[in-house]
């Protein structure tokens, strides 16, 4: 891993458009060497924040810095930060190669980089086709290639997974993993949690321009719980407790209602196997959302109350 990782820092950032406060007193950091998901429902303020990080929008107050400096004060902005905003911002008559050449010239990057990226991002065969016929997946690849022209240490990608099929997502995961493993700082926004959950190490969640949660995915997501419906619930609870006490593992069983248990610390197959071994009846097993999934569901359905919100 390279040692020249750059931290992205947003500190007390606010952006107002007249009556609308798009971003409100927002603070978080994005570390190098990992992929950070920037999550929030539509209109939460993700794009506005990323635009402030790239100097495209001026903050009303607060700061947005890259390696300690605002974008406009970086010595080589396009060689330090690669950003991608709109997957459709191509001249329809340009080929992929034309498009990259224009941006390479603007950023002062060599033409050889264009050929290199066309290969690296799987666009070599489509290089001389006009972008008007490009699929969403090809557009996302071309956008990422554009962001990578200056071989930047920091990548700010707005909805890079938007419109990708599972194969495209797997490809994106591989590319971003490689970039992060090389010590780069990778921030990707999304309004769909499930889209990025296999992709990100850390998350920053915002709603209505404000921070809701931030930290490593593993800590925020928490282990899933299993909801068990059983006419033998009482015996099953006691059996689960005894067997795990004997095995020395941590397990918690809560009685939710008559015939209904919530088990923490054992997955659904584990509960089913144990019940079968003791000839106890199980009518239903449901793996519950992780706390992050539940939090995001509450955010998008607007049922979040302040005391449910957790920030680190
Ligand atoms: N130039 C602008 N003028 C006025 N209001 C704006 C402007 N840009 C953004 N907004 C408003 O600021 C809020 C945040 O928008 P933003 O695009 O940053 O959200 P987002 O999280 O990126 O949403 P999405 O997932 O839909 O892209 C929205 O209410 C939006 O309408």
TrEMBL record:
<protein>
    <submittedName>
        <fullName>ABC-2 type transport system ATP-binding protein</fullName>
    </submittedName>
</protein>
<dbReference type="GO" id="GO:0005524">
    <property type="term" value="F:ATP binding"/>
</dbReference>
<keyword id="KW-0813">Transport</keyword>
<feature type="domain" description="ABC transporter">
    <location>
        <begin position="8"/>
        <end position="233"/>
    </location>
</feature>
<dbReference type="Pfam" id="PF00005">
    <property type="entry name" value="ABC_tran"/>
</dbReference>
<dbReference type="InterPro" id="IPR027417">
    <property type="entry name" value="P-loop_NTPase"/>
</dbReference>
<dbReference type="GO" id="GO:0016887">
    <property type="term" value="F:ATP hydrolysis activity"/>
</dbReference>
<dbReference type="InterPro" id="IPR003439">
    <property type="entry name" value="ABC_transporter-like_ATP-bd"/>
</dbReference>
<dbReference type="InterPro" id="IPR003593">
    <property type="entry name" value="AAA+_ATPase"/>
</dbReference>
<keyword id="KW-0547">Nucleotide-binding</keyword>
<keyword id="KW-0067">ATP-binding</keyword>
<comment type="similarity">
    <text>Belongs to the ABC transporter superfamily.</text>
</comment>
């Amino acid at each position: 891993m390279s040692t020249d990782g750059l931290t992205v820092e947003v500190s007390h950032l606010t952006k107002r458009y007249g009556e609308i406060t798009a971003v409100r007193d927002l603070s978080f950091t994005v570390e190098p060497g990992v992929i950070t998901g920037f999550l929030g429902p539509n209109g939460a303020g993700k794009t506005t924040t990323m635009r402030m990080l790239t100097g495209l929008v001026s903050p009303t107050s607060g700061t947005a810095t890259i390696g300690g400096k605002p974008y406009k004060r970086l010595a080589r902005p396009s060689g330090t930060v690669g950003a991608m905003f709109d997957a459709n911002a191509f001249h329809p008559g340009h080929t992929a190669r034309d498009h990259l050449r224009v941006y390479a010239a603007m950023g002062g990057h060599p033409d050889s980089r264009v050929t290199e990226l066309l290969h690296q991002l799987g666009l070599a065969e489509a290089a001389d086709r006009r972008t008007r016929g490009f699929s969403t997946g090809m557009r996302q690849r071309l956008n990422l290639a554009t962001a990578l022209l200056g071989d930047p240490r920091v990548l700010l990608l707005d909805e890079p997974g938007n419109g990708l099929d599972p194969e495209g997502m797997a490809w994106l995961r591989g590319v971003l993993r490689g970039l992060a493993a090389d010590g780069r700082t990778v921030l990707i926004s999304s309004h769909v949690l499930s889209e990025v959950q296999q992709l990100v190490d850390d998350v920053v969640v915002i709603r209505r321009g404000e921070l809701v949660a931030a930290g490593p995915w593993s800590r925020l997501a928490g282990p899933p719980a299993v909801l068990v419906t059983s006419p033998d619930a009482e015996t099953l609870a006691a059996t689960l407790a005894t067997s795990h006490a004997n095995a020395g593992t941590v397990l918690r069983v809560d009685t939710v209602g008559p015939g209904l248990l919530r088990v923490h610390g054992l997955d659904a197959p584990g509960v089913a196997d144990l019940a079968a071994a003791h000839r106890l009846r199980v009518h239903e097993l449901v793996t519950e959302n992780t706390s992050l999934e539940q939090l995001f569901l509450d955010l998008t359905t607007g049922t979040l109350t302040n005391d449910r919100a957790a920030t680190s």
